[in-house]
Arsenate reductase
Amino acid sequence: MNKIYYLASCDTCRKIIKSLPENNLVFQDIRQNPITEAELEEMYKLSGSYEALFSKKAQLYKSMDLKNKNLGESDFKKYILEHYTFLSRPIFIIDGKIYIGNSQKNVAEVIKALS
């Protein structure tokens, strides 16, 4: 199953979704339907790291002063499961491959994978 984890209220996510070719993606708004530990485990297996899935741009990251803490993989996992804002987004899983984040290069790879 090809899937996108995104935030419906995120302008960047909406812009990326509009740019996608016709597809068979299953859409999951992570605010309305938070990710489960099993979903996070699948992402971890594909990415090899919880840190790769973690958003250091999140406002909570700054307000909780997490940048000055020595966070390990278990911390990244815990924070992602505690609050949706810590999941880097969008995350696409297409044909068993994971695409994390909104960089132009990443979005171009997603469009190519869906074409």
Notes: The mean pLDDT is 95.
